[in-house]
Design goal:
The chain is mainly alpha-helical. The protein has a domain at about 10-50. It has helices at about 10-30, 35-50. The model has no long low-confidence stretch (mean pLDDT about 90).
Length: about 60
């Protein structure tokens, strides 16, 4: 079986799309809900990943936590 690897550009695009989608979900739920807390953990992970790629999150970050 052949293993396909994503290019760095594809990985960045995937993470940016997930970050944007996740923020939209976070804005729909109560901040004190269990769902929000789980999503916030992933939000923080994605911020770290995107920052490591050198992406400026100023314009992308709707949550700003």
């Amino acid at each position: 079986m052949e293993v396909l690897e994503m290019s760095e550009k594809e990985m960045m695009q995937k993470n940016i799309e997930e970050f944007a989608r996740l923020q939209n979900y976070m804005l729909l739920v109560e901040k004190d809900s269990a769902a929000y807390k789980v999503m916030k953990d992933r939000y923080i992970e994605l911020k770290v990943i995107l920052t490591a790629f050198g992406i400026n999150l100023t314009e992308l970050d709707k949550i700003k936590e």
